[in-house]
Amino acid sequence: MALTANKIILDWIDECSALTKPDKIVWIDGSEEQLEALRAEACSTGELIKLNQEKLPGCYLHRSDPTDVARVEDRTFICSKSERDAGPTNNWKAPDEMYAQLSEIFDGAMKGRTMYVIPYSMFVVGSPFAKYGIELTDSIYVVLSMAIMTRVTSKVYDGIGDSGDFIRGLHSKAQIDPEKRYIAHFPEDNTIWSVNSGYGGNVLLGKKCFALRMASVLGKKERWLAEHMLILGIENPQGKTKYVAAAFPSACGKTNLAMLIPPEGYVKDGWKVWTVGDDIAWVRPRNGKLYAVNPENGFFGVAPGTSEKSNPNALVSTKRNTIFTNVVQNLDDNTVWWEGMDKNPPENALDWQGNPWNGKTASTKGAHPNSRFTAPAVNCPSLSPKWEKEDGVPIAAFIFGGRRAKTAPLVYQARGWEHGVFIGSIMGSETTAAATGEVGVTRRDPMAMLPFCGYDMGDYWFHWAEMWNDLDRIPEIFNVNWFRTDDNGDFIWPGFGENFRVLEWILKRVAGEVGMTDSPIGYLPKPEDINLDGSGVSIGTLKDLLTVDTALWKDEVKGIKEFYKKFEKNNTIPEALKKQLATLEERLANA
Ligand code: OXD
Ligand code: MN
User: Among 16, 59, 79, 252, which one carries the catalytic annotation?
Assistant: First the structure.
């Protein structure tokens, strides 16, 4: 039975079901009873495997098709009416053409299947930050994952009322055919169509598709920001908490930073880190300040490398009500395992594809490198008590970062807002040996939004640069780099919990408690202002980590110019950023 009388919603569902031709339509209401019945059904068909309910209560394992294990950037499209609006960094196709092409693929795609209608809210229903979506899908895995990652509830229909103000998402696994896989966004129609994939990043439409690509477009229109950022709170021993939001490209430890545990001495003194979000921040100006929320309700984290040592909070988060995808199944006790969890791989196990696997003798990896856990945020021991605060948490600082072996110092600060936006725009990360054959190639990933900005990135920078007009108190902007290496290629900075020392310096700068040294690229810490007690890092090493190599930065400027060239066609690079680039060049020349 339909859960809403909203004619716009009903007409749209009619249209989609006429196209995809499901056998039946099931309205998801978010109740535990309904979700439990779906879990049972998915187990009966093999779509899910129930894990050891004593050790992992409420946990399930899912295996995706082996050809369908990651986001497909080359098949992800922004279908704005004008190609110019999608910008030079997105794939573009005209909406009419894309609708026509995908209609053929969607035609009858749900025959013999059920279409589930999922009403979901990004952030707390009814709050000033909330935005609503409805996803139609033929996958129970999607229903159950959306119920973890977003707020799935029929209250969403009250939020939408009789308006058409919701994101329309249509998803079908179809045949999981990689050649006919498309993730298409129609920003002018508030519509997302995703077909022939079952992988989370492509099909949990609330996440990258809505909360970043569509929301970035909404944010531009409505004067707010949708960012690929974690949010964390740092509470000092006096009980005062300051919040920072940080953007890093993938494989730079965003979830680890979001759930960081400070070094022992700090914990003893009463410092705490609170997790507000690990992947997405919606940021709005209010009363001259910026406030942020995490619009998600769970963590879709990369499993391999998550351990008691690297991220105990993430590991605890996966111990109940979690769906694991493409990890190892330990047949002895029906639990899960992945590379980097511990040094005891199971011997009697199935690998991510369900093949017999012995971790002691295997020459192949047991878990897929992009295997995931989908875990409720409420499981996280460091979850901030303010994570659902309706009007968000105030942001004291933005942090950008990447993986740079030599160029970027451990931390530096922007000279002001426009310089900070410039630093975000030139963000890059070097490829690692594990990811490609070419080591050390810089992939530019401005604000870590390259695959997620739903419009021209130059216009996006302009939007960022303009934001300060709405602010009396401008958050400070910093850049960090945990990944400097020595001549042997070993990391110099210990990272993980020790990164807290850098966060502490950042907050001291925000509070005006410490000075700095000027440099061509921005403000550097005075080495004595970063607390190294108990870190094992010497002041000499720290000094090395804070050096700025002028010759390398001159090369960097060449790389930035090359990247900026892409935007010449639409002429969208803001004047403010061109000026910043010229200043950097000048300062390097005079250094
Ligand atoms: C990503 C993710 O790919 O969060 O950025 O999954
Ligand atoms: Mn992400």
Answer: 252
